[in-house]
């Protein structure tokens, strides 16, 4: 099967990292295709950028040429999953939700450790809408921006592990979710330091997407994600 | 003061109707300026269209020339209010939330009557995120599309009033909220038929916006709506 | 229009302060009439006093001679709003709810800073019943009694600002609500010290009441606030 | 021990009925003393009457001469329990809460059947504040006023049993709570018709009060129910 | 009446302590019969042990010879109450729920102080399922194992009182619930040190059971606790 | 990898059906080993049977000879998953939770269609504890017992499809979850009749278990599922 893994920012290097993670966990026979939006922000850390990302991801997928079996939206806490589900027939998996549901199989409660404090509310909104909030013990910020996480992995591990340990100790979290695509590759180091399972969203989402395809399941089209009514769209970018 | 009232769809006639409603309730000295997005859908009735609207509204406001004191986003159940709050210094009022909070002053619980069944989940999500869901007794669909509501008011009143009465009788609603910009002007007729107060979002939002300005209050900038970090946005429309 | 603003305690100086705040924000053409209960407590800081206040306010309004368009109950966290809504035809606005809904337009979450710890549960109950609890990050006590707040504004500002800053830092509040009528006039000083918007209940409630009147809306009479059934009331105070 | 059982309305015959129920279940050695408020409504079916009842009950208890070990407030869904807890050192039991907690020992969920539709919100508020709402499957109105229930028991049983059966069938209730003091004595007939356990508030509350006394437990005085601060109360009835 | 009080572990000395507590509070005429499971763990502090306890208690009751009027399951936070309710016709009272409902009559919120941190989730699950979680301010662990609590009462009081005081100060608890059968007899010492009412589960449950019997109430058999369908059970222990 | 799939009842034919479903979806290289408890009920449709199943499953797994990588508990709504997680080092997946989380990827809300009305509360409890209740629109009973579902597939499809359609129409469900192991093999027929995606728990759980193993994730051992403390277990079956 072929899975599109779509970055939410316009930084190709981030897409490469995401694709690498996805391929590392993909089953034999699963082809991972990475997409980078044609427009948007170099990193997504706020409301405007997140709304841009929603459309950037949709645009990237709709302009992709060739068949695919599922789509993974690889941004933690971003908007847009519902739009993809409406526009597409294949399963759509957001890494925020995939990470959270995966974490719930591993412990009573999980904590998310993300980049900046300003992204915490975005993540909280996604988890609330997805009904995944009750087992979320805390959403903590490492204090490092997305691109800083990428550029200084050692410092990133320190900052994330400190919050992870605090979440286990003070928030009674039993599992840590890495709440940022830019944290890819830090899973092992954080787990070692935190002493609990650590879930990264992209690999989790790839396994969810593969599972849905294997189970022959796809998005329900009866109401929330029914195809859009035929109507005039004007201007950019989807007209 | 000057309030920008921004339509979420690209149909200028709808903007005209919204502006008319806004002006009818505005205080002396309040200037209402209507804006229509340069891109988007002719009516907003789904997830993709709603995400387009979020950016279309933001684009319209950011490209508006001249000062203003507050912004009203005139789409019921659409995305984008958070992005406006982040991008602007003046108060931002979404008509969904203004209608709901206004309704809570009038009765123990309210019901929303909207256009199509497919827009119900969008409204439910907005109310959940805003913490306004607990006093919402029901969200009911009239079965008429946004543009049908505009074009056949008599049929619209029939369809809305039927759902309003059902909400009062079966859902224990005590107030009705008209859940669609296209229902402007039907308030009186629905109230007469339903026997309970009927709240229309645009007038409600204008009074909320005026109140915030008079109280000297504006959006908190400490976390969720802090200004975006300086970064590279590429492509259109906000770069 | 004429708005009755009713103090919940029997201290006329507090009524004067409340009326002053109300007039400062009232629109041109709005007349503010202050009422002081004929019976009750000199300040309201507990359950018995709050129940007395509910009846004292009702008594004051029912004995008021002359027309009015709306009523503001100017006690933070007190009982009685529902009784007024049942007894009257005009809109009734409690300052607790007006402050909280106003705050929700300004930030993701708000904290209330009130007088004594013993009043926290009363406020929490009002917010829970009003469905306004989910966006309330915390209710904190300044440790000063209502009349101390009145008599020593500098000390009051210190105590309130300390709790406000703690709420922003530790509870993730983005807006502060002043949770006591006796805090009138401290808004500016607290805002300066806390760095976030500060909402005072009386001005907020006046604008809500004015808005409801302008919108032609009044309390739904179908169930919860239907007029009382004709029946024999004996003794004091409403017979 | 001696338990004060306080009616919430001013109808002495209702007090007599309540006292009769209480005595029927009281343990050997428990003395039941019935109190009727000196002021208030002949029956309590709304917000104003309920607030009057809160003070009427408090007044009746504070003016009671002689010792007692516990107080039962015998009104379903009325205000005032918190004020009694603040004012007194002995345990206070509201029949609404006693009935609900008793019901939770008997089945997964319970439904309340009350008098008029207009009293449903009052009951709902009490259960919400008490944290007893989640296992409440429904609150249904029989359509009979309090005094009608008293005067025509056969018709009352018919009306209550019809709602009880509907609650079991449609709301998945497994236990019925009689939600009105005036339903005293109908328990057996309703149980026979509904096929599930039926809980009456007054007997339930008497056993709870007796249990608290036997366990040597009384109200916590650290915060919510700490004694009132010394202050000037003016006017009647508690000054 | 005769009440079976069933220990959840296999340590007879613990049963003796529980029976002693039960008898100390039982009404004249109430006979307390203590039962110890034939199999299970010497103390219950985890998931496997708790599931064993559920069956051990059921086995002990079903093999008990002779009539009884109610059953008290004397384990804090253990599984099995639902199974007893299904299997028996008489009332069943779990001490976790009895302690929590008793505590709600005494203060706005309560905290549980239990043995080890690992038992906190078990207790939290019971309270959530029982709908008793909202008034639970915290569940705190003393750090002492069940049998340590038994063997060193002075140390136990120190550890429990420290957590109790922290719960009152930091979690706003107003009542303490002793969350372990092994804490029997420490109630007075903890109350003295914590300054708030302290509820012990076994005595509370005995009074609840007695009350249900006196009220003539028993478990609803319409759905959740309907008798098991006739079917083949094989193997051990209930076949 | 090798996955143990454990039936909750003692009927070997049901185990065979479950194993068949599991193998149909298992990835190449995944070995499915079916286990049938040595004791318990021939079908699980109530509280006692469910508690027996919890221990029967645990006993079966602990007595299994040879290595395995994950365990699937194949009973819908049964107790015991937490005990397995505590006792084992490998991932444990309950089919109730796997079906529910899978369903949340496919639509806004899902409904469970189960066997008998009496099993509805058991399922509701599992979903509540797992934090998966908010997106569950309804749990409906087909009215057929577990073994009837097995023995008359045509009648089963009729009964299930009727409830599925009702859930889509009346409860706004967008996805159907088959809430009984005995419904294996009916997925296609129900989907055709209901017009929405249909999720069966066993296949869903197998893919979740495979994913966890591939991701190298296993149960957190820091608190809730920490290994049992060394202690004396007496009697059977786990001593």
Number of domains of chain A: 2
Q: What is the radius of gyration of chain A computed over CA atoms, rounded to a whole number of angstroms?
A: 17 Å
Shape of chain A: globular
Question: Biggest β-sheet of chain A: count, sense, barrel?
Answer: 4 strands, parallel
Describe this structure in words.
Six copies of one chain form a homohexamer. Chain A contains nine helices and ten strands. The first copy, chain A, has a four-stranded parallel sheet with strand order 2-1-4-5, sandwiched between helices. Chain A is α/β, with parallel strands linked by helices and 239 residues long. Chain A is globular and about 55 Å long. The relative contact order of chain A is 0.17. The first copy, chain A, folds into two domains: 2-94 and 203-214, Rossmann fold, CATH 3.40.50; 96-201, Rossmann fold. In chain A, strand 8, helix 8 (187-194) and strand 9 (198-200) form a beta-alpha-beta unit. The interface between A and B is large, with 50 and 50 residues. Strand 10 of chain E pairs antiparallel with strand 3 of chain F.
Task: Throw out a few tags for this protein.
239 residues, 2 domains, Rossmann fold, Iso_Racemase_Enz_sf (chains A, B, C, D, E, F), 18% strand, alpha/beta, four-stranded parallel sheet, homohexamer, 9 helices, 43% helix
Q: What order do the helices and strands come in, and which of them pair?
A:
6 copies of one chain form a homohexamer.
Chain A: E1 2-7, H1 12-25, E2 31-35, E3 40-41, H2 47-62, E4 70-74, H3 81-87, E5 92-94, H4 95-104, E6 110-114, H5 120-129, E7 136-141, H6 146-151, H7 153-170, E8 175-179, H8 187-194, E9 198-200, H9 201-214, E10 233-234
Parallel strand pairs in A: 1-2, 1-4, 4-5, 6-7, 6-8, 8-9
Helix pairs in contact in A: 1-9, 2-3, 4-9, 7-8
